[in-house]
Amino acid sequence: DQQVKQNSPSLSVQEGRISILNCDYTNSMFDYFLWYKKYPAEGPTFLISISSIKDKNEDGRFTVFLNKSAKHLSLHIVPSQPGDSAVYFCAASPSSNTGKLIFGQGTTLQVKP
Amino acid sequence: DAGVIQSPRHEVTEMGQEVTLRCKPISGHDYLFWYRQTMMRGLELLIYFNNNVPIDDSGMPEDRFSAKMPNASFSTLKIQPSEPRDSAVYFCASSPETGYLHGYTFGSGTRLTVV
Questions:
Q1: What is B3-29 written as a DSSP string?
Q2: What is the pLDDT of residues B45-61, one digit of tens each?
Q3: I need a surface site. Which of A58, A94, B22, B32 has the fewest CB within 10 A?
Q4: In sequence order, what are the beta bridge partners of B74?
Q5: How far, in whole angstroms, is CA A99 from its chain's centroid?
Q6: In Å, how far is A95's CA from the nearest CA of chain B?
């Protein structure tokens, strides 16, 4: 039972354009969401997060949007750069202070020069 | 800070053999997590520890899997006996007390191949 789903296994965009990665979740008790980025042969690294009390969080070229009613979040990268090519995982925390994160399957982003 | 250190980086073993994966978390981190990455399911949480105590092992697939954390600086994940379907990349991660607010720090992973 996949509580966090990334339905697009891959995404290809042109350099300079916007990349939009999507994530859906099923558990309404999730209160914190994060995005991780993973390069080949490396572990995932934290990218950006958002609390359930917000609907948007921005950090430079990266913006995460949260739609609680739809149980959907998205990561926007503007402008996309070739160095952004990686696997992106969304993750959700089931409740405060457990430390536990549930991850999605990942989406492979390719940014073409 | 050397980060989360995992060993070995690669492991190839024959079906039926015992496999032990190792992890050294970041000093001072209270949480330690073991994840498995597969194409189908992404990153699956296997087990996690808080202050060396196992908190949730519901993700451990079978009794063949076991994990220990004898002290704050070391953890092992053991598979005995190993099977081909265990082939995956296994990640260890650690975090401070309020880890989910700041994100985990992952190790580079152990790629396990069971033939």
A1: --EEE-SEEEE-TT--EEEEEEPPTT-
A2: 999 999 999 999 999 98
A3: A58
A4: B71
A5: 18
A6: 10
Cα–Cα distance measured from residue B22 to residue B6, given in angstroms and rounded to the nearest whole number? 6
Interface-testing mutation among B23, B38, B100, with chain A (most A C-beta atoms within 10 A): B100
CB-count exposure of residue B54 (10 Å: 0-12, 13-18, 19+): middle
Radius of gyration of the CA atoms of chain B, in A: 13
Residues 6 or more apart whose Cβ sits within 8 Å of residue A40: none
Give the gyration radius of chain A's Cα atoms: 13
pLDDT at B3 exceeding the cut of 60: yes
Q: In what order do the strands lie in the sheet with A72-77?
A: A4-5, A19-25, A72-77, A62-67, A56-59
Digit-coded pLDDT (tens) for A38-94: 999 899 999 999 988 999 999 999 999 999 999 999 999 999 999 999 999 999 987
Contact: A45, B4; criterion CB under 8 Å = no
Does pLDDT of A97 surpass 60? no
The conformation of residue B102, written as its DSSP 8-state character, comes to H
Distance, first Cα to last Cα, chain A: 38
By C-alpha distance, the chain A residue nearest B29 is A99
Going through B14-96 in order, the beta strands assigned E by DSSP cover 19-24, 31-38, 42-50, 53-56, 65-71, 74-79, 88-95
